[in-house]
Fold:
Amino acid sequence: MQTAWLLHHLIQRSQVAVATKDERRFCRQRFGSGCCMVRSLRAVVFAGGASRRMGTDKAFLCHQNGETWLGATVSLLRSLDLQVHVLSSHAHHRDFLADQAGVTVQSDPGGPAGPLNAFSAVLSDRDDEALLTLPVDMPRLQRSTLVSLLSHWRQSESSALVSDAGDRLQPLFAVYPCGVANRIALDDELFQGRGHWFGWLERIPYRTFRCSSRELINVNRPDDLTALIG
Structure:
């Protein structure tokens, strides 16, 4: 019972950079003597795309719970008491979230130039931090899946954990540790002129986390939205 409680507590504590004594003891017993630090965790939402294929801003599409997709994504992450950074250069996103506690909107570097370039604005070189990433256009994701992803990542915090639908990876739903090595790898991928997320993954250690393909549906076109609703 105490082990289960401590594991749940580790997932929920997003703003603690230094572990308590009980958490250190649990880490040593559960994951070995090398684990003495619980990384603080923040959430990052990618919402800066131009939505050209959809023809309208996907962030403001209506979610099944009655919110917008952007509002529902932020609410999901805030339900875990995570501080949320929304990466977007759209002024109306900033206005929409202006009064939301625990939420900041950060402009993409150079505008909507791809998610890895946007991510470079928030990935630090600190070894005691990590970032949970989530795109705004994944409306079927369940809270239980999010909690399970975080639980699995806590078992080996030094490597990234990337969601896997079975036939494809979804690298924008993942947890990425900060740190010097991962930061250098990201800069190298950007400076070499490619800026591909999978190119960065090839440079860093990561594991995969199997998810339902239904939850990882990425909606880009009106036909995708019709299929989702139908």
User: Anything to note?
Assistant: The longest helix spans residues 143-154. The radius of gyration is 17 Å. Residues 40-229 form a domain with the Spore Coat Polysaccharide Biosynthesis Protein SpsA; Chain A fold (CATH 3.90.550.10).
